[in-house]
């Protein structure tokens, strides 16, 4: 696949969030959490409760839920249980968003360094990438388990940039959740935001996004994202580059 006329002369390092951005894993995470909590006497955990934690790491989510729901079990025990349930579901089926797969292929063909930086466990990240066939293109992986602080702190993105050998200000992050977009901003990185949860595009966490697809994955296209990367590469990193994508 040839690069478009607006593609960057020097390939921009691109860091992908995984869950809700590259793949639609939230249904699996919800079901894993629902089954886990049912085993600890919480039978009515609903999607609305789960949606509060989209973009937050699994450990942080379980720390909050165990306190709110009065679950008397170590967080490490809960974490191991949810990871086990999630891996069973993820290995059975995880859907890649088609336009995201196209973007990964386009970036790979044009020589862009790429990484995945996620709040999921490393085992979960690797299982999903292997199961979807993305592992051959996305070989640099950082889990929130490997850094001191999860999103909305910037640690996972900064570590991804370090492993790519890139300056944070040269990197662009793709994110679906406001905490992740905020983490990108705190890392000094530009962000392409594709909100997973409908109605969250106006969340203040997305305010610093360089490109916002207000309609989420229904509106996102690889061509539009790649063209924006070409334009953004021609601007100084400190220059505002906020745009809202218009449906084609």
From TrEMBL:
Organism expressing this protein natively: Streptomyces bugieae
NCBIfam families: HAD-SF-IA-v3 (TIGR01509)
InterPro entries attached to this UniProt entry: HAD-like_sf, HAD-SF_hydro_IA, HAD_sf, PGP-like_dom2
Record's protein name: HAD family phosphatase
